[in-house]
From TrEMBL:
Keywords: Signal
Residue stretches making up the NodB homology domain: 57-167
Signal sequence bounds: 1-23
Protein name, as recorded: Chitin deacetylase
InterPro entries reported for this sequence: CE4, Glyco_hydro/deAcase_b/a-brl, NODB_dom
Keyword Lipid metabolism in annotation: no
The keyword Signal is annotated on this UniProt entry: yes
Gene3D superfamilies: Glycoside hydrolase/deacetylase
One Pfam family, short name: Polysacc_deac_1
GO MF entries: hydrolase activity, acting on carbon-nitrogen (but not peptide) bonds
GO biological process: carbohydrate metabolic process
Organism in which the protein naturally occurs: Hyphantria cunea
Taxonomy of the source species: Eukaryota, Metazoa, Ecdysozoa, Arthropoda, Hexapoda
Length: 384
């Protein structure tokens, strides 16, 4: 599997009904024709023309890959019972892959108000596979995964709205056409190095994007529906760009808690003291778990965020909702906390299933009955 450092380096390398595509290369955006809530030109301008100091500063903390009993220990310790300054529970988005996932844990996270999003069924360690993935392959990896998650974790499929491509490898137009045709709200895979200060806000693909394409192929057609939630790269101690915290290879010493706390705060201030584009804290749980000083620094940093009256840790989907209907800070603070139905889970002994794709035996806790076969691409529910 590729290391986080490689993910950072990747940023430097430069019979389907296409119902939502106009059939031609996207044209330059025309703001008078591209209006919220359905359309937004790519840019660093603040939605709604709100003054920076009156903009809620959103923070999106995200974790990638399988949700397991091991990393749940960290999630419970670090995230549970946290609230923003408006007394609403914090949000966090989990871009989950299927293999090794504990679906009872997915259900638990959902019932805590956190967002479950898609990171593919297979998470294949093959850059070319994702780069060249066609429409049918992407449907099997992501649309079928949404069905899989909804079934085994017993959560509403309509609550699963976003995707992140493995290794941040884009798949071009087919990726967003798949999303448009299957009512997926946003992609959170496209990283930008150039448009970070001031930062790029989320936008749609009705018109041509001004965002650079660091891991091609990127979308070029006019595609209506999906939003781009761009990854705004951090800068490490030597000013080297990194899309994930654990890809910042020139960061502080791993035993230096104070250094990491300052590092988090400095990157946050680039947003908070600028145009307040959403601040993404993208990381893998193993990095936090294996570096206790980093976890302590992160806990302190989250405490700081939760104490600020104009900063809100939210799910990725909530950022898109605000951009569609931007309101100033005072009005945002008066809104009620998000509500969601509780999803029951019939917990029991984990399923023990041998996989046909690699011969391994998996222990797979689910909220429903055990599948006949280990679920995999082409057989997402393990029915045959």
């Amino acid at each position: 599997m590729k290391t986080p450092i490689i993910w950072g380096l990747l940023l430097l390398v430069a019979a389907v009904a296409f119902d939502n595509v106009n059939g031609s290369v996207a044209e330059q955006c025309e703001p008078e024709r591209c209006r919220l809530p359905e359309c937004r030109c790519s840019g660093t301008d603040i939605p709604g023309g709100i003054r920076p100091r009156s903009v809620p500063q959103f923070v999106t903390l995200t974790f990638d890959d399988a949700i397991t009993s091991i990393n749940m220990v960290t999630y419970r310790r670090l995230l549970y019972n946290r609230r923003n300054s408006n007394n609403c529970p914090i949000g966090t988005t989990f871009y989950m892959s299927h293999e090794y996932t504990d679906y009872q844990a997915v259900n638990e996270l959902y019932n805590r108000g956190f967002e479950i999003a898609l990171h593919s069924i297979t998470h294949k360690d093959d850059q070319e596979y994702w780069k060249n993935a066609d429409y049918e392959t992407l449907v099997k990896e992501f649309v079928d995964q949404r069905t899989q998650v909804a079934h085994f974790a017993n959560i509403p499929s309509t609550a699963v709205k976003g995707i992140r491509m493995p290794f941040l490898q884009m798949a071009g137009d087919p990726q967003f056409i798949m999303m448009a045709n299957h009512s997926m709200l946003y992609d959170a895979s496209m990283a930008t190095i150039n448009l970070v200060n001031p930062g790029l806000w989320p936008y749609t693909l009705h018109y041509r994007s001004i965002q650079e394409c660091n891991v091609p192929p990127c979308p070029t057609s006019s595609i209506h529906g999906p939003w781009v939630l761009p990854i705004l790269a951090w800068r490490d101690l030597e000013n080297f760009p990194c899309p994930f915290v654990d890809a910042c290879s020139r960061g502080p010493n791993f035993q230096d808690e104070e250094g990491w706390y300052d590092f988090f705060q400095k990157n946050f201030e680039n947003h908070y003291l600028g145009n307040r584009a959403p601040f993404g804290f993208y990381v893998h749980e193993a990095f936090i778990r294996t570096h206790p000083a980093v976890e302590r620094a992160l806990a302190r940093f989250l405490n700081l965020l939760n104490s600020l009256h104009d900063v809100f840790m939210v799910n990725s989907e909530e950022v898109i909702a605000w951009v569609k209907n931007p309101v100033p800070l005072t009005e945002y603070r008066q809104q009620g906390c998000r509500a969601f139905p509780v999803a029951p889970c019939r917990a029991g002994n984990p399923c023990r299933i041998r996989s046909d794709h690699n011969g391994n035996t998996y222990y797979m806790p689910v909220c429903t009955a055990c599948p006949r076969r280990y679920p995999w691409i082409g057989n997402p529910l393990g029915l045959w």
